[in-house]
């Protein structure tokens, strides 16, 4: 009676049972390999996810500004000033896929003796003492009064006319509304027709309306004054004292020309947040940062929005009237600019609102390529830049560890598998001499390994996941604490001042720990399984070469 031939599948199961010690050793080795892969990949994925969560926390708004290098090089500053971005540059950037909306605005100052700037109050017990002191001995007003209320009061001049900050905007969709800086409490925003045809309409703050008893539909009058600079510069008292010109524009003898502009209020806005006291009382806050924060907050409540075409017309009026004085002015100040240049190529303050804050970094790179030299895109990602640098350092460590582990473990695994298969070379050769096909022997060995790999994958991924939760979180916190001094700046260098009020602040270590989460997603699992199988099969393939090339007669003669 003939014995039934054993299939290669049955032989694989029998071999696993017979070689328990070898099978357990291979199982532990592969589990360790997969666990290390999982630990590295889970950590890298978690750090990437943390950086993404930090970006999601950022306001999705960017602006155009000069590069930092112009601050230290006057020649570069002159080039940047001369070759500033044009409206065509801005429109080209606005076509990038990441941009949801944009605005370009021209800022001007107009004057009035009838309308008053709103008086903004802050809790003096919650601001630094340095803000409560006057900046100069001759003045009674404190820094706080100057920054959040009206212009500096000069001791020898009774100020009867105040200066008002007007923002001429290009787009009906107000970027300050979309970014969450303000909301329209009453009325509406501009129409495209009002912007195109330079209608004298305005959107004012609720404090401005309340201070002057105005509402939607009310009108107010402003003066656009051209300063008689030659006469002013020839006034010894003013030159010797060094006062700013804008404090004297209300004095009749210094006015060369002026026009009256009557605006209708079509909307009233309200700031969307309260003053960020924590940014001014932070122990690492610099005096300059505090002053800028307070100044921007006061300016926000005083600003008045108008169509950009109205601002352009006001600039043209100034340029046309100053042209006749330009030669005389330059006899006194040789570098005095020609205002007509700013009419032809206006100095635009530009903002881009993105669809997704995760696009901030890639948008910055793409948009900067479209700007003139010494200009770049700025955003609030700089706030946590030192923290991001720390995470990038951690990321590079784990990536290097991962690559080294892949190479080292591949070599170790290939060597171990080769030795184990070599031990069974006689067994394989006997099967070959009995007429078994080499392909069936390869299938048998692969099937044995497949059963071990399947269990190793399940356990290795679990071990890698829980190791990542414990070790990587502890390592992250430890690293952040050791670098904590590097990212405690309230307003790091490079933070755009025009976005200061949208600054979400630097993340604390506790907040970072809450954002950091290790999770299992399909893509990470696919990478772990795919890479593990690839490394193991590559090692197995290298080891099976000896079986494929084996000659039964020669192998049997060697034993």
Description of the molecule:
The protein is α+β, with helices and mostly antiparallel strands and 559 residues long. It is 52% helix and 14% strand. The chain is elongated and about 115 Å long. The strands form 2 sheets. It has a 6-stranded mixed sheet with strand order 8-3-2-9-1-10. Strands 4, 5, 6 and 7 form a 4-stranded mixed sheet that branches. It folds into 2 domains: 8-56 and 388-558, no CATH class; 106-339, no CATH class.
Topology record:
Layout: H1 8-18, H2 20-57, E1 61-66, H3 74-82, H4 87-94, E2 99-112, H5 143-148, E3 162-169, H6 175-178, E4 182-187, H7 192-196, E5 201-205, H8 206-212, E6 219-227, H9 229-233, H10 236-241, E7 255-271, H11 277-281, H12 287-302, E8 304-307, H13 308-322, H14 326-332, H15 339-344, E9 349-354, H16 360-368, E10 375-379, H17 385-423, H18 425-433, H19 438-482, H20 509-515, H21 522-548, H22 552-558
Parallel strand pairs: 3-8, 5-7
Antiparallel strand pairs: 1-9, 1-10, 2-3, 2-9, 4-7, 6-7
Helix pairs in contact: 1-19, 2-17, 2-19, 2-21, 17-21, 18-22, 19-21
């Amino acid at each position: 009676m003939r014995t039934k031939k054993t299939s290669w599948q049955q032989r694989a199961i029998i071999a696993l049972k017979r070689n328990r010690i070898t099978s357990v050793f291979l199982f532990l080795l592969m589990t360790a390999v997969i666990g290390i892969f999982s630990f590295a990949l889970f950590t890298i994925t978690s750090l990437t996810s943390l950086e993404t969560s930090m970006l999601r926390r950022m306001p999705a708004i960017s602006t155009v500004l000069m590069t930092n290098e112009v601050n230290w090089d006057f020649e570069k500053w002159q080039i940047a000033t001369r070759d500033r971005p044009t409206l065509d540059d801005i429109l080209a950037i606005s076509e990038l896929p990441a941009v949801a909306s944009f605005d370009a605005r021209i800022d001007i100052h107009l004057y009035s003796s009838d309308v008053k700037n709103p008086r903004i109050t802050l809790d003096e017990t919650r601001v630094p003492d340095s803000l409560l002191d006057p900046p100069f001995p001759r003045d009674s007003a404190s820094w706080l009064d100057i920054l959040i209320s009206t212009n500096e009061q000069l001791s020898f001049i009774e100020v009867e006319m105040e200066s008002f900050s007007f923002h001429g905007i290009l787009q009906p969709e107000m970027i300050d509304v979309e970014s969450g800086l303000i909301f329209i409490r009453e009325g509406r925003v501009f129409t495209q027709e009002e912007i195109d045809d330079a209608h004298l309409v305005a959107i004012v703050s609720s404090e401005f309306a309340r201070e002057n008893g105005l509402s939607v539909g009310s009108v107010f009058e402003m003066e656009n004054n051209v300063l008689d600079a030659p006469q002013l510069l020839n006034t010894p008292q003013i030159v010797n004292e060094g006062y700013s010109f804008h404090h004297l524009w209300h004095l009749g003898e210094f006015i060369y020309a002026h026009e009256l502009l009557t605006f209708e209020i079509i909307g009233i806005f309200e700031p969307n947040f309260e003053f960020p006291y924590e940014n001014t009382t932070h122990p690492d806050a610099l005096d300059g940062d505090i002053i800028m924060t307070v100044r921007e907050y006061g300016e926000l409540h005083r600003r008045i929005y108008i169509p950009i075409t109205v601002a352009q017309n006001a600039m043209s009026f100034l340029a046309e009237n100053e042209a006749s004085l330009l030669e005389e002015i330059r006899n006194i100040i040789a570098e005095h600019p020609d205002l007509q240049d700013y009419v032809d190529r206006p100095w635009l303050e530009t903002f881009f609102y993105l669809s997704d804050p995760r696009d901030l970094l890639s948008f910055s790179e793409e948009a900067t390529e479209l700007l003139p030299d010494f200009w770049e895109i700025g955003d609030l990602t700089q706030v946590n830049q030192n923290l991001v640098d720390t995470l990038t350092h951690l990321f590079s460590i784990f990536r290097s560890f991962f690559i080294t582990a892949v190479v080292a473990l591949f070599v170790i695994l290939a060597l171990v598998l080769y030795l184990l298969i070599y031990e069974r070379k006689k067994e394989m050769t006997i099967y070959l001499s009995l007429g078994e096909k080499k392909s069936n022997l390869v299938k048998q060995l692969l099937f044995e390994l497949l059963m071990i790999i399947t269990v190793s994958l399940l356990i290795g991924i679990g071990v890698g996941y829980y190791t990542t939760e414990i070790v990587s979180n502890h390592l992250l916190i430890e690293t952040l604490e050791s670098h904590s001094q590097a990212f405690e700046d309230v307003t790091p260098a490079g933070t755009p001042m025009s976005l200061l009020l949208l600054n979400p602040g630097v993340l604390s270590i506790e907040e970072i720990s809450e954002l950091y989460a290790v999770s299992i997603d399909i893509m990470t699992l696919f990478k772990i399984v795919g890479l593990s199988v690839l490394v193991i099969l590559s090692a197995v393939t290298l080891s099976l070469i000896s079986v494929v090339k084996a000659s039964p007669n020669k192998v049997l003669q060697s034993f």
